[in-house]
Every structure is written in C-alpha cells, then in structure tokens.
C-alpha cells in the first residue's frame, strides 16, 4: 500500500513538473525582434498646451526605426520675481498617428527627457510625463524633482522592462499615441523674489526627448 501511495505521489509530481516546465516558457514569451521592413510613419495629429505653442514641437522617427524624438523650442516654466501664475506650470499634449508594417507592433522601452534648469536656492522644479495608446490605460508615468540651487542641464531617463512594455494594439491602421508632459516651478521661501525656471530644451542639443522602442509580431 505504501509503495502504491508513493508511486501515485511521484506520478502526480511528474505531471506537475511537466505542466510547470511547459508553462514556464509561455509565461515569459515576451521577446522583441529586429525592426521589420515596411513603412513606419509618425505624424503629429494635434498639439496643445502652453509648453508647445503652434510650430514649436516636432516629432521625428529615427532612420533605424529604434526610436523617435520630440523636440520642443518654447517649453519653459518659471516662478518668482512677479512671474504670472500662468507661467509657473508649462504643459504639452501631443497626439501622434503611428503607422507600422502589417503584422507588427511596437512598445516604448526607454524614455529620456532633457532640459535646462536655473533654480535659485530653495526653489524646486518638477517634471511629470506619461504616455498611452488611445483606448488603453495611461502608462509611462514619470516624475522627477529638482532642488535649487541649480544651474545646469538636466536629464531624466526611465527604463521599462520588456515584460512590462505597453504594446500598441494590433489593429489595421494602428492606434494613436498620446504624449503628455509638464514642468512646474515653485519659487520657495528663501528667495521668492528671484526668478527660477525650467525648460524642456537642453542648451547643448536640439534633441529634447527620446523614446526608444522595441518591436514584436502581432
């Protein structure tokens, strides 16, 4: 009897082992591929916000199809010294129409934001960003805080592990991508009369933000 019980137990264990062995690769099948051949287009559908007045934001895809960039030329938040309340926060929302080769989709794996900060002692600045495909949950939420005294270029980079990447839904014609960002400056109490500012355009480069992407088949 004991031998039969052990035999049954080992048999059950063997079945479970097979199941787990079979299921494990399936649970981690998220793999990226080389950028596919075919047409990959990114066109700005709409832009609005005081951080990106008409004609000041540009979206360009990389030639190797591994990234696209957004460049701003008039994205500034400032506070202190009698600055109007409306200028203390700058924001921008860009809706992008994306066209991808048939049978493929992409997701954002890394984001890099760059700019310049001139914050007086006690002043603070904050970067908030997020992006999402229309009809899906907001993802790519990033927040970075900066504290004065600071007068230098700044950079904020966020990595997304491949299993956590939000992939564009596989639908004919693709799905629009929304990109939202904001800069907020607080003058603080130490030097409230001194103007502090943050920009989303670095002084040493024309490229402001970079979105690195990965590809996979639908």
Explain how this protein is built:
It is a single chain. Helix content is 12%, strand content 47%. The protein folds into two domains: 1-30; 33-217, Jelly Rolls (Sandwich), CATH 2.60.120. Strands 2, 3, 4, 6, 9, 11 and 12 form a seven-stranded antiparallel sheet that branches. A five-stranded antiparallel sheet has the order 1-5-10-7-8, with no helix packed on it. It is mainly beta and 218 residues long. Keywords: Signal. Pfam families: DUF4360 (PF14273). This is DUF4360 domain-containing protein. InterPro entries: DUF4360.
List keywords for this structure.
47% strand; seven-stranded antiparallel β-sheet; DUF4360 domain-containing protein; 218 residues; 2 domains; disordered N terminus; five-stranded antiparallel β-sheet; mainly beta; Jelly Rolls; 12% helix
Class by alpha and beta content:
mainly beta
Number of strands: 12
Largest sheet: 7 strands, antiparallel
Architecture of the largest domain, according to CATH?
Sandwich
The backbone outline, from C-alpha atoms, is elongated
Q: What is the CATH class designation of the largest domain? A: Mainly Beta
What's the helix-strand series?
HEEEEEEEEEEEE
Average pLDDT, all residues: 82
Whole-number total of structural domains: 2
Low-pLDDT residue intervals, each spanning 5 or more residues: 1-28
Instruction: Please give the count of helices.
Output: 1
State the separation between the terminal residues, measured CA to CA.
53 Å
The proportion of strand residues reads: over 45%
CATH third-tier fold name of the largest domain: Jelly Rolls
Please compute the radius of gyration using only Cα atoms. 24 Å
| Helical residues, percent | 10-25%
């Amino acid at each position: 009897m004991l031998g039969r019980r052990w035999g049954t137990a080992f048999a059950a264990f063997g079945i479970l082992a097979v199941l787990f062995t079979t299921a494990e690769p399936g649970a981690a099948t998220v793999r990226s591929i080389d950028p596919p051949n075919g047409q990959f287009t990114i066109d700005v559908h709409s832009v609005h916000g005081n951080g990106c007045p008409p004609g000041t934001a540009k979206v360009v895809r990389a030639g190797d199809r591994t990234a696209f960039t957004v460049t701003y030329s008039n994205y500034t938040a400032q506070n202190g010294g009698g600055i109007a309340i409306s200028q203390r926060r700058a924001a921008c929302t860009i809706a992008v129409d994306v066209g991808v080769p048939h049978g493929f989709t992409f997701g954002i794996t890394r984001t890099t934001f760059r700019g310049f900060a001139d914050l007086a002692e006690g002043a603070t600045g904050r970067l908030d960003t997020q992006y999402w495909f229309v009809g899906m949950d907001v993802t790519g939420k990033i927040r970075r805080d900066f504290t004065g005294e600071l007068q230098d270029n700044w950079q904020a980079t966020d990595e997304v592990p491949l299993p956590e990447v939000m992939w564009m839904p596989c639908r004919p014609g693709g799905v629009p991508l929304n990109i939202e960002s904001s800069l907020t400056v607080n003058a603080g109490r130490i030097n409230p009369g001194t103007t502090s500012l943050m920009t989303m355009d670095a002084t040493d480069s024309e490229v402001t933000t970079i979105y690195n992407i990965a590809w996979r088949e639908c």
